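Anyone? Bumping this.
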Amino acid sequence: MTQAAKPLPDVDDPLTAPFWAATRETRLVLPECGNCGYLQWPPERLCPECQHPDRAWREFPATGTLWSYAVYHRALDPAFASDVPYAVGLVELDAGRKMYGLMTDEESALRIGARVRGVYDRVTDEVTFLRWRMD
Amino acid sequence: MRPAARIAIAGVGATEQGEIPGQSPEEIAVRAATAALADAGIGKTAVDGLITCKAPLTAHGTDEGIGPLLGINPAYSTTLDYGMGSFSLHLAAMAIQAGLATTVLLTYGTNARSARTGFARPIGGASDWLRLSGLVHVAGPAAMAFRRHMYLYGTTEEQLGWVSVAQREWARRNPLAVFREPLSIDGYLAQPYIVAPLRRADLTVISDGGTAIVVTTAERARDLAAKPVYLLGIAQQSAIRNEQNPDKLMRPWLGEIAARVYSAAGIGPADVDIAYLQDGTSVWVLQMLEWYGFCGLGEAGPFLAAGSTRPGGSLPVNTHGGQLSESYTHNWMHLYEAVRQLRGECQHRQVEGATVALHAQTHDFWKGAATLLSTEAA
């Protein structure tokens, strides 16, 4: 049985294209509301604070602390069958919001509250994922 | 009399739980409805309100799909997308108090097990982002929430295990329960992880089944066949900003529902004899024990390990086995059980002298609802 293909993002979606363009260059950019400056993550089509539609993307360091994590021992999504066990982290960015991402460390190295740093994982010419490792 | 106490549950009904092959969610819902009407001692023509609830992740279960099978044209009818238990119950109370109807039938059916409904999907907002990281199924975010609880408060996996072990002890006394084989704490800890730190026993059963409830005015309920169970207080709170909230996983907004439902009823957690806490995962029970004030924030681990929720404990919880052992009905069967416990009908698992029940539920990270119930009209 061939393994299901892993999901890939639509890098041309105007809502998120700047994020994927930046990860290709190993940079982290996040959208701020063009009106009130609210930092959105994940990006929304309207600002959750003021409902303004415009966003300005600004670069931030890919650093933060590990807020929590879950370790999949069962491939509940068959596309991840060859990865189990794999750890998904929830990172509290130094920029001030939370972001999910696969952890590159072994489970035994994961420490909530400890520093993490972004790792850029190029999977296709178009898609580079932001993963995280303990710093 | 407090406003919600003008409303009572006048009848409950359920189908068998587990596997019901070859029946649609609508057929199952109507079978449950027939049982609830018989329990109340009324015919279907007495029903002037119908509230149905969609079977999750399907288009099944609308009032327009159920109407032809039930064969009624109630004055008021509607369907909630996530209308489980208290969410439908509260709407029924509002419909009655607004004068839209006097006798409202709530009914729900699912064939999730026979239809092999897939639940390995991202849970919550930003589903595309969750999927990219392999964060599918409610087990993932629940595992994160519990791992955070372990970090903040020193809670252990063994302490969490007592949620599932206690509910299995209750389920063993419930002929309707799907899982009735013994489960010890050692047996729990020996289970492999599904999404660490959670194991199979921390996650809901997937099953078929139906539940129905008849709701009417307190006055009318006193004239019907079954002993009335009154609504002492109701409350809800949403968290629909979801991922744009500062903390999606620990669900601090549950505390707002708790404060409001106790205030509405004029009682506190010490007055609650039995609790029905929606348990799509065991972690939700742990969170609700704290937010509903049965122990302090961060203290649910020791509270559980002391056996508080087990048969004979200080706060029997999910005395039918809940979703972890009995069946997957999104707190509908919790409501059915709460009513039957208050009416004293639960035989081997009857909690003697129980007069006040809390029914509390959540739609994961979206919203929550709670109802305080009693056989005494406060």
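Late reply, but here is one note on the structure posted above: The first strand of chain A starts at residue 28 and ends at 33.
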